[in-house]
Amino acid sequence: MKSVRIIYFSPTGTTKKVVETIAGSLRSEKVDVLDLTPTRGRRYGRLTSDVDLTILGVPVYTGRVPFQVVEALQQMQGPGTPAAIVVVYGNRAYEDALLELNDIVSRIGFLPIAAAAFVGEHSFSTAATPIAVGRPDNEDLEQAASFGRTLRERLEAAGPLGNGQFLKVPGNYPYRERAQHVSSPETVTELCTKCGACEAACPEEAIAVTEDGVATDRESCLLCCACVRACPTGARRVNDVELLTIARELSSTCHERRSPEFFMK
Are 158 and 201 in the same domain? Predict the structure, then answer.
């Protein structure tokens, strides 16, 4: 395989890890990377067709593809080449996200030939409310690599490309409604050193660190908690009562290990 393109949105790095592992197992001579995580990385138009496969990976937020990713992908024009789609969820359920991603990718001009759903540590996971801690782990990544090798074999055999069938993935129409909750992590002033790590980690540029402290635009916050993970002193925390309740419920009800799922055309 000569060339692979990976496209991902990955505030806390779990989706990136899965997609990169899949791409690495393809043993491609060249890997092009389109990182949609920072806002400046979401400005693409027509994509070139000089790749053998595009791998698109996104996290799942309340059973859906993040709206910011939907907007970014809809600005792209796919080149009519094969694509593998990947969603990464926090061990609860990916619900309609894989179907939604499959629909979007098809509409913008890709040919989805395979899909996968992986588990990544939940954004709300903490020491007090652990949810899928350490996922994707070595076992997950071994399966991601195996998925990549299968993709390579399928593409080399050209088996899945010309059979006139659509890729079938789980999900429902209409998609579930997006959860609406305006909130954000907060900063414990006594612990904050104003190092700027939270500002740098925020994919929506919703955080501003100044001499006066840390300001967060709650309307723009995705609740991805990348800032919480990035803070070296533990100053960034989720204090919203409703979100803390959700985290406790997920920690107690979603502790059974869920395995990756795969779908091939």
Answer: no
- C-alpha dist (Å) from residue 121 to 12, 89, 118, 180: 9, 8, 10, 22
- Domain span including residue 227: 186-239
Domain count, the chain: 2
Q: Pinpoint the alpha helices (H) of the chain.
A: 14-25, 67-74, 97-107, 138-157, 197-201, 226-230, 241-253
143 lies in the same domain as 70: yes
* Structure token digits, residue 7: 């496209």
- Rounded to whole angstroms, how far apart are CA atoms 115 and 112? 8
List pLDDT tens digits, range 218-231. Answer: 999 999 999 999 99
DSSP 61: B
**Residue pair 7/84 in contact by the 8 Å Cβ criterion:** no
For residues 118 and 140, the answer to whether their CB atoms sit within 8 Å is yes
On whether residue 248 sits in a domain, the answer given is: no
pLDDT along the chain (265 residues), means of 10: 94 98 95 93 78 96 96 90 96 98 96 97 97 98 98 80 73 93 92 97 97 94 97 96 96 96 93
- Here the CATH number for the domain that contains residue 152 is 3.40.50.360
62 domain-assigned: yes
Residues 162 and 220 in one domain: no
Strand partners, 6: 33, 55
CB-count burial class (<10 Å; 0-12, 13-18, 19+) for 12: buried
166 and 59 fall within a common domain: yes
Q: At what angle do helices 14-25 and 138-157 cross, to 10 degrees?
A: 40
- Same domain (yes/no): 211, 114: no
Length of the chain: 265
